[in-house]
């Protein structure tokens, strides 16, 4: 009964869904989650019910996809703090209805005082505790400047306060924790206790319960500052002073100068063709777009459809393509502002063919050595997709890196800070938290952006928007985006089928296919083993969101059943 009352309130706040939907929530679910909708005009898919409904409400007020994206980015910080953020960063890809594509890099930067050897111990070994937990792990946050820049360039509403106000309200009034949110907060409590210098509701609370209302009073004040003062509300004033004071208390190195200097950056998207499709994604400092294009180039000469979805042949081929792309990632990719990444060459079709010369359809290739990295589950980043009623599309992947980032909450503000510094190569050849290794291209330098795997993607066909997609999942982001794009382009799946289909992953090192259980049948597993592939079954891979624009102009949107994700629209 209490739940019904809560839904009634949310419905009044956000308006009821008018589009066709498949609601898939278990009886004890806190929210009525739509996993698949067909919307006539506009759609939003995010990792949380409350954020999706905020996005929809902005679209209904006449905001465009960028307006809705700004409101969603902030709302996710409040209602999905494990990865939604203002203490982290992200990438936005925006396609205007006319076909122009823009990408915004609001990735964190290394602080001015950062050094290449800052995570090495006295023996010269990388101390990953320091790059993953606590104040030294934090990069200079980019999300607020990113949203301000997106607003200045593309907002249709031209009403900043309306975009920020939902976050003030949700933080003040609270939102109900889902079962997985309550469980993960409880699980992370010992780390919150370890990393924090000031009392806060996450270190100090008793166990969180499913359905409990999470009110964040300090964070509401931060959002009032951002609402009233824009960029200055975060990078200046009492919020910036609080961040710097937190750094001093915890031996972190971010200064007021770091905050004042931070600027998000508009970059050229990377783009490539696959059959009749044109695929746009994020350029470095993300590795995702380059690898996605490179892998599609490598696949173009083969007939995946003919091989069959998740057949031995297709899994072997995709694995070999992923292996080769990730080997290139480790050596060549880093922030192009600091390192001459051979971008064009890496995405060139002749180069892709050359990379596949040694592909043996009957035998697994050998990665040079097997690394020790262990892949983690996928909640540490988040993705959302939005298409508005004019056909403008936004694809954003945003992150604190690990779940709740560095676990540091800025005293008196409720802001979670990222641990993005772990995405640099702390030492050549040493795996980071995703088992990824790097080299010179991704070494730590002041003001450099750490290499990312985030792959927000938009696909068009014959000059028309056809698909918006992306996912969290660390290194598996890139291979999941590849596979879901192929599910649509090659295997003809609709949004829901493409998103919910099982996935597998290979990243060169460690030399193993990690796979969701249902992706590989017992017969295929046997055949892959006999070809020399080691396969390890793991938990869920990613939390994919996708919107497909149908030929009649309607939108087919899907939210991943692997999480509490929710599609909304009208
Ligand atoms: N922090 C995860 C990524 O950017 O790839």
TrEMBL record:
Pathway: Sulfur metabolism; glutathione metabolism. The active site is at 381 (nucleophile). L-glutamate binds at residues 107, 399-401, 423, 452-453, 474. It catalyses: glutathione + H2O = L-cysteinylglycine + L-glutamate; an N-terminal (5-L-glutamyl)-[peptide] + an alpha-amino acid = 5-L-glutamyl amino acid + an N-terminal L-alpha-aminoacyl-[peptide]; an S-substituted glutathione + H2O = an S-substituted L-cysteinylglycine + L-glutamate. Keywords: Acyltransferase, Glutathione biosynthesis, Hydrolase, Transferase, Zymogen. GO terms for biological process: glutathione biosynthetic process; glutathione catabolic process. Its EC number is 2.3.2.2, 3.4.19.13. The keyword Hydrolase applies. GO terms for molecular function: glutathione hydrolase activity; leukotriene C4 gamma-glutamyl transferase activity. Cleaved by autocatalysis into a large and a small subunit. Pfam families: G_glu_transpept. This enzyme consists of two polypeptide chains, which are synthesized in precursor form from a single polypeptide. Belongs to the gamma-glutamyltransferase family. NCBIfam families: g_glut_trans. This is Glutathione hydrolase proenzyme.
């Amino acid at each position: 009964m209490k739940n019904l009352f809560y839904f009634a309130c949310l419905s009044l706040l956000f308006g009821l869904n008018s589009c066709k939907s498949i609601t898939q929530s278990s009886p004890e679910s806190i929210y009525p989650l739509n996993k698949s909708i067909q919307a006539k005009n506009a759609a939003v898919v995010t990792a949380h019910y409350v954020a999706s409904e905020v996005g929809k409400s902005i679209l209904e007020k006449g905001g465009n996809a960028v307006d809705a994206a700004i409101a969603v980015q902030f709302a996710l910080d409040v209602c999905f703090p494990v990865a939604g953020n203002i203490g982290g960063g992200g990438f936005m890809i925006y396609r205007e209805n006319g076909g122009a594509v823009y990408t915004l890099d609001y990735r964190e930067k290394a602080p001015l005082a950062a050094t290449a050897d800052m995570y090495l111990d006295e023996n010269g070994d990388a101390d990953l505790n320091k790059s993953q937990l606590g104040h030294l792990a934090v990069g200079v946050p980019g999300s607020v400047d990113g949203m301000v820049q997106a607003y200045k360039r593309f907002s249709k509403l031209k009403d900043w306060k309306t975009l920020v106000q939902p976050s003030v309200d949700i933080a003040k009034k609270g939102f109900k924790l889902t079962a997985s949110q309550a469980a993960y907060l409880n699980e992370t409590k010992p780390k919150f206790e370890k990393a924090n210098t000031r009392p806060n509701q996450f270190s100090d609370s008793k166990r969180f319960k499913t359905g409990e209302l999470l009110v964040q009073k300090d964070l509401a004040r931060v959002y009032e500052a951002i609402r009233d003062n824009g960029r200055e509300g975060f990078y200046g004033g009492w919020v910036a002073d609080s961040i710097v004071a937190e750094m001093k208390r915890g031996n972190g190195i971010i200064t007021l100068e770091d905050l004042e200097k931070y600027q998000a950056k508009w970059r050229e998207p990377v783009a490539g063709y696959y059959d009749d499709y044109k695929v746009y994604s994020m350029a470095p400092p993300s590795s995702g777009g380059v690898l996605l294009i490179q892998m599609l180039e490598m696949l173009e000469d083969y007939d995946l459809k003919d091989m069959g979805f998740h057949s031995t042949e297709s899994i072997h081929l995709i694995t070999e393509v992923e292996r080769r792309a990730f080997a290139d990632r480790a050596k060549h990719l880093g922030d192009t502002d600091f390192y001459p990444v051979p971008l064009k060459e890496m995405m060139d079709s002749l180069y892709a063919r050359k990379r596949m010369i040694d592909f043996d359809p009957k035998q697994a290739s050998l990665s040079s050595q097997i690394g020790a990295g262990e892949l983690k589950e996928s909640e540490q980043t988040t993705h959302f997709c939005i298409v508005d009623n004019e056909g403008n599309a936004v694809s954003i992947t945003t992150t604190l890196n690990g779940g709740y980032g560095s676990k540091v909450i800025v005293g008196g503000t409720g802001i979670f800070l990222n641990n993005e510094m772990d995405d640099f190569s702390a030492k050549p050849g040493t795996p980071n938290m995703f088992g990824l290794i790097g080299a010179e291209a991704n070494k730590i330098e002041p003001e450099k952006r750490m290499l990312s795997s985030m792959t927000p993607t938009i696909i068009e066909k014959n000059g028309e928007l056809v698909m918006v997609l992306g996912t969290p999942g660390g290194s598996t982001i890139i291979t999941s985006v590849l596979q879901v794009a192929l599910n649509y382009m090659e295997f003809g799946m609709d949004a829901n089928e493409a998103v919910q289909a099982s996935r597998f992953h290979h990243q060169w090192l460690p030399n193993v296919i990690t796979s969701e259980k249902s992706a590989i049948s017992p017969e295929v597993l046997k055949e892959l083993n006999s070809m020399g592939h080691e396969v390890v079954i793991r938990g869920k891979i990613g939390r994919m969101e996708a919107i497909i624009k149908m030929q009649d102009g309607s939108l087919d949107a899907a939210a991943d059943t692997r999480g509490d994700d929710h599609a909304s629209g009208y």
